[in-house]
Amino acid sequence: MSGTSKPGRVSLVGAGPGAADLLSLRALRRIEAAEVVVHDRLISPEIMELLPARAERINVGKAAGAHMVGQAQIHAILIEQARAGREVVRLKGGDPFVFGRGGEEMLALREAGIDCEVVPGITAASGCAAAAGVPLTQRGMARACVFLAGQLADEGTPFDEQLDWPALARPGQTRVFYMGIARLPRIAGQLMAHGLSPDTPAAIVQDGTRPGQRVLACSLSRLLERAPAYGPRPGLLIIGETVALSPDYRDD
Fold it and tell me: 112 vs 3, 9, 13, 106, 119, CA distance in Å?
């Protein structure tokens, strides 16, 4: 381990939606200079192959209902490694500041007096939607786009009270639910109960931008019938008129 004579640094690096050639140049430079990489579960194998052989790898990946390492422990690992004078990369899928808890990690590092930088990444909403041929905004169709957490965190609040469903059901917007497959029936039910047409185009994008990408695009009512069961593959739920522009859209 490096001595403590030089100060360490933590780079919160967005790895994007999966394809290695979608990394920013700055992200790649930080990865190549890393002495230790603290990484999430969903980092693609092709990006993991870019990590230096000399770099220590610490897997702090989380899965629904099975957190390998708690968030407070992740903070402690980052602080400990930086205080040891190491170049630390906290490698996170998508963008660190979009449902990535990067803000919490930044604040913990700042409070501990650790030098921290944030390297943006392509978030899943824009990356996967683009790969599926779904514009998030489109003149005359969608003048707004909303990013939402599909697995809502506040278990103490009834599901129907966690979001402004009447506002989300209004036309002219694209709704993107991160990790939304597991709660698709409840999400669709709330939107339709508040006025969204069951004929509204909707899509599930799994492994977006990766070689195994799968797109299922159809009306919301048909998506409820055809959606895959929730599993380990990452999936994005997109609901809005622009989904009909995808070459994968089939409304039959």
Answer: 19, 12, 19, 10, 20
